Amino acid sequence: MRKIIAQLFISLDGVVEAPDQWHFPYFNDEMGAAVDASLGSVDTLLLGRRTYDSFAGAWPGREAAGGEDAPFAKVLGDARKIVVTRNRQLELTWRNSEPIGGDLVRAVTALKNEPGGTDIAMSGSVSVVRQLLGAGLLDGLHLMVHPIAVRKGMRLFDEGEPSIPLELVSSETFGTGVLNLVYAPAASPGSGTYEDAKAHLPRTGR
């Protein structure tokens, strides 16, 4: 079964909306290498409609311009791009793009069961990430936590939904102060009370 791995830029206060307005001052070689590791070697991208529209409005032009980002733009263009949308008749102009609609859980489960050796990558697409996390279909969550409180905009985790336990798989600190954190689904930590915790409090010797 293929794995689905999502990568998101996120602020210290949990904001994931419009990262183009706050994350570029923190983009360095370390972050570029991490993005390339997640997106540069996959053959399939799973994208929400808004993220697809944003990518399709920028990367084909960058590929055509032939600048220093053209090779990465070509990788994205050559990849199979599956777009989550309610409109199955939507015309998708970026090459190798196809819509996926209907029941998302059923459609993504079928996608994961398709043959293929590489992970399926996601970038942005917050609403889709939330649904896949809740359904237990997301295998990895890569969060690049920026040392800034944006203080406005959509956050990754909204209120009122069941908790989702995660396991920290790896962590790395970039020179800019960005934390590159990789999480995977985890079993419930179970129950606990203050009575359980107080045995671990530091002893002052008094």
Characterize this entry briefly.
By secondary structure, the chain is of the alpha/beta class. Helices cover 28% and strands 23% of the residues.
Structural commentary:
The structure is a single chain. The protein has 206 residues and is an alpha/beta fold. The protein contains seven helices and eight strands. The longest helix has 11 residues, at 29-39. The radius of gyration is 19 Å and the shape is globular.
Question: What features would you highlight for this structure?
Answer:
eight-stranded mixed beta sheet; 7 helices; alpha/beta; 28% helix
Unreliable parts: none
List the strand order in the largest sheet.
4-3-2-5-1-6-8-7
What is the H-and-E element order? EHEHHHEEHEHEEEH
Mean pLDDT score, rounded? Answer: 92
Helix fraction? 25-40%
Rounded to an integer, what's the Rg over CA atoms?
19 Å
- Total E-strand runs: 8
End-to-end Cα distance: 57 Å
Instruction: Tell me the overall shape.
Output: globular
How many helical stretches? 7
What structural class do the secondary elements suggest? Answer: alpha/beta
Strand content: 15-25%
